[in-house]
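User: Design a sequence. Structure:
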């Protein structure tokens, strides 16, 4: 379908008309967002802030933009080329721990993506300490989506020829495949900027330093605050032998002994909120009144029931799962990239008062 626009150009002699075709990039420029954000809004993604989605819809309406038949046909053709292929989604971790809610969001995204392309999906949890390679090979898979600990050694080489996308990521990059992961540096920066906008200059960071991405969140948070002339009290404890409640007690001790007690706090992961809130309250430090809190991951299981619910940063687990499938499909179609690819997904801020986002969070949890 050809989309036409008429721009009036006034001159002293005559009125001219110029005809052009509205594009997704033009909508993006008018809305002040990226082309990928426009695509997600127009495809009914619920991962975009309400104000951003409304700006995109207004721009698309003003420009009379609609996806072309070619784009729709291309999407349909893409699905037909890979329909029926066997895809595996495996979570590889030590001792087969029970999956936390984040894994469920990844799985939901992977499942949605596989449904879009009519792929057959196999799901499994594998023990990283018991050579998971054979557990993967038994399915005769066309493609792999993996989250967790990469297999190593000679046996892992049997997987190198299978198109693979890793979800999330660690300090050590897997020996093969592409990656879709959150931008953890931006997570820390966003948390710092949020507290700064709220007027907080003396702030704290609280988390476990047992993982690479946590250290990145901590460092970028510190940098954002210090660049603005603020001070950061850092509690970044090793997880071995320390539970979250004890982490909360150490946080209280640090706050009480600080020369300039923090009025803002970045808790690195949502799951730490439930054990830490009671410790703060027992010490007479009331979240939301004495300490402005922001956390990260936007996991409903850890946020529901808190009073008050803090701001959080959504790293879009579900979208990461969907994009993992979409990227794998490109590999399966033979549209191979010359190099391995690592894609970082931009996080977004979820404010406590955003009722629509909170309703979506409730629906996702149900």
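Assistant: Done.
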């Amino acid at each position: 379908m050809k989309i036409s626009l008429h721009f009036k150009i006034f001159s002293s002699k005559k009125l001219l008309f110029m005809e052009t075709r509205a594009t997704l990039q033009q909508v993006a420029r008018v809305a002040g967002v990226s082309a990928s954000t426009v695509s997600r809004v127009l495809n009914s993604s619920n991962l975009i802030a309400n104000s951003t989605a409304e700006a995109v819809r207004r721009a698309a309406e003003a420009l009379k933009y609609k996806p072309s038949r070619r784009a729709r046909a291309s999407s349909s053709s893409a699905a037909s080329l890979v329909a029926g292929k066997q895809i595996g989604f495996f979570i590889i971790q030590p001792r087969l721990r029970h999956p936390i809610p984040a894994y469920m969001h990844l799985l939901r995204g992977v499942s949605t993506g596989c449904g879009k392309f009519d792929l057959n999906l196999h799901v499994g949890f594998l023990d990283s300490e018991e050579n998971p390679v054979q557990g993967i090979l038994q399915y005769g898979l066309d493609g792999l989506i993996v989250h967790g600990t990469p297999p190593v050694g000679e046996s892992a080489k049997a997987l190198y020829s299978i198109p693979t996308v890793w979800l999330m990521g660690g300090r050590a990059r897997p020996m093969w495949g592409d990656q879709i992961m959150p931008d953890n540096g931006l997570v820390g920066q966003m948390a710092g900027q949020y507290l700064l906008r709220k007027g907080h200059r003396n702030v704290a960071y609280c988390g476990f330093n047992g993982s690479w991405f946590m250290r990145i969140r901590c460092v970028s948070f510190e940098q954002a605050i210090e660049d603005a002339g603020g001070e950061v009290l850092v509690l970044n404890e090793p997880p071995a032998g320390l539970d979250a409640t004890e982490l909360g007690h150490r946080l209280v001790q640090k706050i009480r002994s600080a020369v300039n007690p923090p009025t803002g706090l970045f808790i690195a992961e949502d799951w730490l909120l439930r054990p830490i809130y009671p410790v703060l309250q027992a010490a007479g430090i009331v979240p939301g009144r004495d300490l402005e809190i922001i956390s990260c991951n936007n996991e409903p299981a850890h946020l529901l029931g808190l009073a008050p619910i803090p701001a959080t940063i959504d790293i879009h687990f579900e979208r990461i799962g969907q994009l993992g499938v979409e990227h794998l499909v490109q590999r399966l179609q033979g549209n191979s990239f010359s190099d391995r690819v690592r894609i970082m997904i931009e996080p977004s801020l979820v404010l406590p008062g955003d009722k629509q986002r909170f309703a979506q969070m409730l629906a996702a949890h149900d």
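The longest strand covers residues 86-93. Residues 1-20 have pLDDT under 50 and may be disordered.
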